[in-house]
Amino acid sequence: GAAASLCGAPETCATSYPVQEVSGLLWVWPEAGLEGLGRSLLEEPAALGSGAQDWVMTVPPVSYESMVENSMDPSHAPHLHEGTFAASDMVPLTDYSAPAEPLGDEGFTVAHGGYTTKNDGMKATRTFRSPSFVDVNYELPSGKQQNFQLYFVPSTPFETRVITGLGLPQLPAWLPKRELLADLLHAFFFSRSALWRFNDQDRLVMQGQDRNQAADPDRRQAAWDVATPSDTGVSTFRKWLAEVGGGGPFASSGAAASLPTTQEEVSRWNVHGKHCPSCKRALALLEGTQAALGKMALFAAVAAAALAVAGRLASGIVATAAAVALSAGSRWAACGRAAFFGMERELWLPQVYAR
Q1: Distance between CA atoms of 132 and 127, rounded to whole angstroms?
Q2: Could you read off the pLDDT of 149-183 as tens digits, one per residue?
Q3: Which of 317, 315, 322 is nearest to 300 (CA)?
Q4: Structural contact between residues 256 and 217, judged by C-beta atoms closer than 8 angstroms
Q5: What is the distance between the alpha carbons of residues 48 and 298, in angstroms, rounded to a whole number?
Q6: What pLDDT, on the 0 to 100 scale, is given for residue 70?
């Protein structure tokens, strides 16, 4: 009848797309119907391995182009990341080989040597697999292997979702309160000032690059004209973007995008926390703990005053000590909560660029 006709009409049916779960990520083939399903079965997601990883997502207010460039430019590290690296440890990056041309649709791989005294002599590769995947492999002189997997998913002209595989060990399944402990460990990792200092050293410079290129698009040509070997990765990506990648994900939109305004006092929350279930649960726990300890401290202080008036000095001293301890715990929880957000620009920038 009418109900069957209505339910069977294309206009009332939800559109479904082929999906796969690989390496702990959900992959969507953005083409509906049987033809899309058939084509999706012929392609493999740009993923390595089949085991689930510890993935985290950040959403910096930075363009896709600048984010990928940054991942292809290892020699910036000793100059920019003071505190993690030191400019005095830099060695010239002269061994950086470009792929054969013409560049293919699938992407490219570049190889290079060390760029600091700590990794001098290493063999490294950086693979860009279009449109979003960057796989970095280091083989250090000691024989140690390091791997970094990054996905750069553009959401607006000046915002990119960065999905990073941390490769951290998982807590054992038998551990009591495993999810709570995992949330707290994750929150501790993502509330460290050293981590955000490293991230913001990149973010602030890349935002400046985005501003300069938005004001003068011809500046992008400079990436082609550089002559030093250390710029090989950046220039190769720019060539791929122009010759194969259609100029970038938003090149054909035609609309001039506005640059985002960053509020430093909430930058950490906007970049990561509000997108992260673990951080949101940990923040709620800290806020609840702060409120509960504050109320208990107030109650203990009132009790201490009452005991002192009643002449019970020993009990009053105990209640006072409890009030002080509970108040300190509430302040500790407040400091933990503040670490999820950020600092005013005037206070934070001197720390970002401190030597």
Answers
A1: 11
A2: 999 999 999 999 999 987 666 778 888 888 889 88
A3: 322
A4: no
A5: 55
A6: 94
* φ, ψ (nearest 5 deg) of residue 98: -90, 155
Rg over alpha carbons for the chain, rounded to the nearest Å, is 26
Q: pLDDT, tens digit, for every residue of 305-335? A: 999 999 898 999 999 999 999 999 999 999 9
> What average pLDDT does this structure show over 230-237?
90
Match 């009053």 to its residue by tokens. Answer: 316
Give the tens place of pLDDT for each residue, 56-97: 999 999 999 999 999 999 989 988 998 888 888 889 888 889
Q: What percent of the chain has pLDDT over 90?
A: 46
* Residues contacting 155, CB < 8 A, separation 6+: 59, 161
User: Cα separations (Å) of 221 from 130, 216, 218, 234, 235?
Assistant: 21, 10, 6, 11, 9
In sequence order, the 6+-apart residues with CB closer than 8 A to the CB of 169 are none
CA distances from 14 to 41, 42, 83, 118 (A): 21, 24, 51, 55
Residue 70 in contact with residue 199, Cβ under 8 Å?
no
Predicted model pTM: 0.86
Q: What residues are paired with 163 via a beta bridge? A: 57, 151
